[in-house]
Amino acid sequence: MAHLIQANRLSKIWGPALFAYSLVIILFAVWPAGSWYIRKRSIKLLRGYSIVNLLVIAILLVSFSYRIALPTFPEDVQSICIVGDSISEGIGGPSERTWPKVLSENTGIDVLNLAVSGATVNSALHKQIPKVPNDHQLVLLEIGGNDLFGPTPTKAFRNDLDSILTELKSSGHQVAMFELPVLPWQWQYSRIQRELAIKHGVIFIPKRVMVSVFSSKDTTSDLAHLTENGHQLMAEKVQHLLTNPQQTRPQENP
Fold it and tell me: Which residue from 58, 51, 52 is spatially nearest to 24, judged by alpha carbons?
């Protein structure tokens, strides 16, 4: 999909730019005299600072115009296998109504949840992927959050995620992947996901879907794990994707 390709190219620009800009903002928040120093010392520095602000704003505005369209899953999905971490497994034990359970109840879809609390991309590769059955139509990846907390080196993250997608696609699975809701200094993880989604033809779910869940009221217990309301909302978001008439696949332009 052209929008994903363009967004990925722009992320190579706005990712580092936003990170650098964040450092500048933090610097002046910690050192209020900084802006006074610029005004006092040199009008050229003040102009330079203003130009940086305008460039960052322009980059962000352009990137928003290329934001990734919401995808959908293949039509008539009857079975889904979820590879993930505590967001999908939950932390309340077998009785917890996690979003995969709610999704299955609401849609009648057979949902196999292989998610394991604390899982990383590497552990999912070795412990969850071998358990993915061949007869499940769609594999949904909700994995990588714990790699951000580690953090897992970006090279290892790329290699393990590439191996996961290679194995799943070579087995003939349809694959969808949640984009990680990264912080400005973690932009490289998002770029890796986008590049590998394009490479493997994976259905890519933009991070605003997960952000909309975690930023809603009473949806998390500690900003990292979903409450009952959070699981309900997450299930509704995925169900909406299942019924969305538009489908976005990350493919290069001919």
Answer: 52
Condensed to tens digits (0 to 9), the pLDDT of residues 20-29 reads 655 555 555 4
Please state the pTM of the whole predicted model.
0.74
In sequence order, the 6+-apart residues with CB closer than 8 A to the CB of 192 are 154, 157, 158, 161
Amino acid type, 48: G
Contacts of 177 (CB under 8 A, 6+ apart): 140, 141, 165, 193, 197, 202, 203, 204, 205
Which of 126, 141, 163 shows the shortest CA–CA distance to 88? 141
Question: What 3-state class would DSSP assign to 95?
Answer: coil
HSE at residue 253, side-chain half, CA atoms within 13 A, is 5
User: Is the predicted pLDDT of residue 204 greater than 70, yes or no?
Assistant: yes
